[in-house]
Design brief:
The longest helix has 28 residues. This protein is of the alpha+beta class. Helix content is 33%, strand content 12%. It has a domain of 61 residues: Ribosomal protein S19/S15 (30s Ribosomal Protein S19, Chain A, 2-Layer Sandwich), CATH 3.30.860.10. A hairpin with a 4-residue loop joins β2 and β3. The protein contains two helices and three strands; from the N terminus they run αβββα.
Length: 113
């Protein structure tokens, strides 16, 4: 545990103030940059727009998320894919095979008529 028990969990006071005004399940997105803020039981049922450095990712809070941080549910890095030239060649071959199958399927009903 990174924070001392005597201090308690860190929850952004501005965030709690915004939540206190809203009703649970209202569907209003609460935008926040406070990724380090822990999810408190009062937050369950609300939707947060957590900033990932580029955009706000909507996070609907459930009971299982209590105790975690908001930033855990808004990834900051985009996964592209594994592999290099070999993987790219395999993907091109499979795409070509799918195209040829689609063309064959289109041509088959035309021959029946």
């Amino acid at each position: 545990m990174s924070r001392s028990l005597k201090k308690g969990p860190y929850v952004d006071p501005k965030l709690l103030k915004k939540i206190s005004v809203l009703q649970t399940g209202s569907g209003v997105v609460v935008k926040t940059w406070s990724r380090a803020s822990e999810i408190a039981p009062e937050m369950v049922g609300h939707i947060f727009g957590v900033h990932n450095g580029k955009a706000f990712i909507e996070v609907r809070v459930t009971e299982e998320m209590v105790g975690h941080r908001l930033g855990e549910f808004s990834p900051t890095k985009k996964f592209v894919r594994h592999g290099g030239k070999m993987q790219k060649e395999l993907e091109i071959k499979t795409a070509d095979a799918q195209k040829s199958q689609a063309q064959a399927a289109k041509a088959a009903p035309a021959k029946k008529k």
